[in-house]
Amino acid sequence: xxxxxxxxxxxxxxxxxxxxxxxxxxxxxxxxxxxxxxxxxxxxxxxxxxxxxxxxxxxxxxxxxxxxxxxxxxxxxxxxxxxxxxxxxxxxxxxxxxxxxxxxxxxxxxxxxxxxxxxxxxxxxxxxx
Length: 129
Description:
Elements: H1 7-24, E1 34-39, H2 42-47, H3 49-62, E2 67-72, E3 84-87, E4 94-96, H4 101-112, E5 121-122
Parallel strand pairs: 1-2
Antiparallel strand pairs: 1-3, 3-4, 4-5
């Protein structure tokens, strides 16, 4: 963390933190925004979910993409941590597993910005014979 030496340093730090909080907690109309939920149970945190969440917050802010990034508890996919759920406006949520920073970048570029499906989707249901 940077050292605060002047009042301007403090104001700059306040503005940066406020922008990050705003990105995470837009609650007026979340259905009109991209929603990203990061599984932050013990297994997710141990697998790097905190870093993935921070990456999404920073990258979406840098690219001026309106989104809500929140954390959630266990999604039940411990074998595929870190996991995230991405919901585009008007679409069904998709859960991605084994999310790394490069995979998060791909999800932003291809799925969130372009609507193109990418590898790593965990099916929400399947049929057996």
